[in-house]
Design brief:
Elements (H helix, E strand, L loop, with lengths): L17 H18 L6 H11 L4 E5 L7 H10 L6 E4 L6 H10 L3 E3 L16 E5 L7 H13 L4 E5 L5 H8 L1 H9 L8 H9 L2 H16 L3 H11 L5 E9 L5 E9 L3
GO biological process, one term: methylation
GO molecular function, one term: methyltransferase activity
Keywords: Methyltransferase, Transferase
């Protein structure tokens, strides 16, 4: 699918209820972690970190509830980077969810203050990553996000847990809502608000269906990711690569990775 529509997602809206947003993020984190969505990009990420010649420290932007980060960090530590660390950041921080992850995940920490991915404070160093969130940005914003990484000579990896297909949209409307109803009682910690807005007033499933569909329609395919990178880096200060990697059981991950040429 090469079509890209700049539609809106409810979770992006400033007025959107925080309790519903948190419930949606909890579900996304659970699913990404349970399915190992981002495990196929671990070799790419490990290679990029090694090329930088710096300490293997990931600075995750737009972290949401931290979905997938735990598994990726563990895999990096088990596959040649035992000192790998990650710091979670977001425009809308979720310290309650992050504290749970940090308590059980060696090497994981978080920045409690709001962090704008388009203008990251210089003191927040590390190889930048964006999981499941780059599609939220319009082309000018996406270009600005990449340009900020180039300006600060911070390597960056953008990863979307889908291959952008009509089949994935069909799944978002059929299989995934049923899965959400089945797994919500098993998401920890159990929150009364999550149960209320899933089963009594089903705002979380309804908004998840809309945002999930729009996420796929807003995703940038690899060729558009490279075009954004070239505009953000007109002087060629980074090496860029984009493409898709596939799980052994089928699903794909779309990615863009940029590493400073001097490294």
């Amino acid at each position: 699918m090469k079509l890209r529509l700049q539609l809106f997602e409810f979770e992006d809206l400033p007025w959107f209820p925080a309790v519903v947003r948190a419930g949606m993020m909890d579900y996304l984190r659970f699913m990404i972690s349970a399915l190992g969505t981002y495990q196929p990009v671990v070799p790419l990420l490990r290679g990029a970190l090694q090329k930088t010649g710096r300490a293997p420290h990931l600075l995750e932007l737009c972290a949401g509830a931290g979905g997938g980060t735990e598994g990726v960090l563990r895999s990096l530590r088990e596959s040649g980077l035992p000192n790998a660390q990650v710091t979670l950041t977001d425009l809308y921080p979720q310290p309650a969810a992050w504290q749970l992850l940090a308590a059980r995940t060696p090497g994981l920490s978080f920045a409690p203050a709001s962090v704008d991915a388009l203008a990251v404070p210089p003191e927040l160093a590390g190889f930048r990553t964006v999981f499941s969130a780059f599609h939220h940005f319009s082309p000018p914003q996406a270009e600005a996000l990449l340009a900020d990484a180039v300006r600060q000579q911070a390597g960056i990896g953008v990863f979307e847990g889908a291959g952008k297909s009509w089949l994935e949209i069909l799944l978002a409307w059929t299989v995934l809502p049923v899965a959400q109803l089945l797994i919500t009682p098993f998401i920890r910690p159990v929150r009364l608000s999550r149960l209320l807005f899933t089963y009594v007033v089903p705002l979380i499933p309804l908004f998840t269906i809309w945002d999930g569909t729009v996420s796929i329609l807003r995703m940038y395919p690899p060729e558009q990711l490279l075009a954004l990178a070239r505009r953000a880096d007109p002087d060629g200060r980074f090496r860029w690569q984009a493409g898709k990697v596939r799980h052994t059981w089928g699903p794909q991950v779309t990615y863009l990775i940029g590493v400073p040429v001097s490294n």
